[in-house]
Design a protein that fits this description.
Blueprint: H1 9-24, H2 28-44, H3 48-61, H4 66-78, H5 82-95, H6 102-112, H7 116-129, H8 131-136
Helix pairs in contact: 2-3, 2-4, 3-4, 4-5, 5-6, 6-7
Amino acid sequence: MVFRSRSFSGPIFPLLFITLILLGCGDPETRFEQEMERAGLLIEQGQYDPAIEILNDLNERFPDRGAVLFEMGRAYEGAGVGLFAALYYEQAGQADADYADSFFTSARFYRAEGDREQALAVVDDYLEQYPDAAEAGR
């Protein structure tokens, strides 16, 4: 008796291939959230360089997102690079009103770096960009 080998790779392989492609090309927002979560965990663990790599990639693919810029500020703050922290906190405030308070964090870092003029300029930018907040403070 001769047994013939049946190959199931013919009909199954294309289905498997398509499934893998679809999983790899998932919803960009879902992937964004997953990568943001991963970067946040790395920051919490004190692994700033890998977090910065992830965040740089996200910033290229999703430019001007306050959340990414804010996390970049946190990562550089944790890494002890105050000037970069200041820059990214400032950009987060400019990009997204939800991160308006990061202007003040940015100003604190500029001041700590000895740049009092830039610290005051960032606060002025905040007051210009969010005039209702300036009125509320009076």
